[in-house]
Amino acid sequence: MTPLRDNHGRIATDLRVSLTDRCNLRCNYCMPAEGLDWLPDDKVLTDDEVVRLIGIATERLGVQEVRFTGGEPLVRRGLVEIVRRTAQLAHRPEMSLTTNALGLKHTAAALAEAGLDRVNVSLDTIRPETFAEITRRDRLPDVIAGLMAARAAGLGPVKVNAVLLRGVNDDQAGELLRWTIDQGFHLRFIEQMPLDAQHAWHREQMITADEIFTRLEKEFVLTPSGEPRGSAPAELFTVDGGPATVGVIASVTRPFCGDCDRVRLTADGQVRNCLFARTESDLRTPMRAGASDAELAERWVRAMATKLPGHGIDDPAFLQPARPMSAIGG
Ligand code: SAM
Ligand code: SF4
User: How many helices and strands (H and E) does the chain possess?
Assistant: First the structure.
């Protein structure tokens, strides 16, 4: 086993696999209303190729956790079978899914049966009109039905990820927290990052973790949970004495790059050693040219070594990566 170690001593054990860059929502902080130029089908890894690369990562490179994401992973037709085959690998990883939950109502039970352990659902509001404003689709009831189905299927603890946008839903943080606590979901707020396709992100516009605390503390008593953060990006707080908790992921204002244990594989078979990396390492082309598992593993190890120490968002020379979050895999 060769760990995915970078030149700063960090070891990646958590693999994010993007299964598609396509999506059935159009969250305005993620992509434009008209969508994006999707990857052509022949560039997207096949189910066999995805499972092969996950096998290499888990059996040769020490990866222990796999999160399927996108784009919207539920629009990938082979998802349940990919999960089932990943669960059957010799070194079975922990498996989770990051999803907008559209259609999860119909697939949650099958995903759980195939071996999926957990889901994270992205939901920024529980008001239908705000949901439609953010996602440009009037689908809130489907998301809520998906969340309920995930809970019923035992895909828990179900986490809910929310992004707050100034003047849109930043006044709804408390309402969302109350609702998730009532439903038994674990809410985590994520700072908005400069990863949108439109390049519309502005540091001065984003809602910071400090602002999120100020807003929540008007309605709740938040106490640091005392759990060591380790490589988990969320700072956790108990709410009103517990047991409920809320997390804040301050990727921009309190980066956790020094503890990062992540590596990413895009839907077209490129390894990215960081969400913000400006370079990628191609595994698809050598794989299709007949490279062995050992050769692909070696390329993967090399791709990780050069991971930069931090994302540098606050550096005046910061440049957004060429691909947006939806094409990298969030
Ligand atoms: N479609 C799935 C979903 O929405 O959960 C998976 C992919 S999506 C890119 C993954 C996560 O990234 C979502 O929680 C979404 O809210 C978040 N996201 C997208 N663009 C973002 C941005 N610019 N800053 C912070 N989070 C973002
Ligand atoms: Fe789709 Fe997720 Fe981006 Fe929303 S955040 S547009 S659901 S990929």
Answer: 10, 14
Domain count across the chain:
1
Instruction: Tell me which residue range forms the domain holding 264.
Output: 4-328
Q: What DSSP designation does 290 have?
A: T
Question: Any idea what the CATH number is for the domain that residue 85 is in?
Answer: 3.20.20.70
Amino acid at 113: E
Q: 62, 300 in Cβ contact below 8 A?
A: no
Q: CA torsion angle for 4, 7, 11, 15 (degrees, to 10)?
A: -60
Residue 312, strand partner residues: none
Write out the H or E segment, with its range, that includes residue 325. helix 325-328
pLDDT per residue as tens digits for the range 179-191: 999 999 999 999 9
Enumerate long-range contacts of 207-211, CB under 8 Å, 24 or more apart: 207/164, 207/165, 207/166, 207/170, 208/250, 208/252, 208/253, 209/235, 209/248, 209/249, 209/250, 209/253, 209/254, 210/253, 211/170
If one residue of 23, 30, 155, 206 were mutated to test the ligand 1 pocket, choosing by the most ligand atoms within 8 A of its CB, it would be 30
25 lines ligand 2 (CB under 6 A): yes
pTM summary value: 0.97
CB 107 within 8 A of CB 119: no
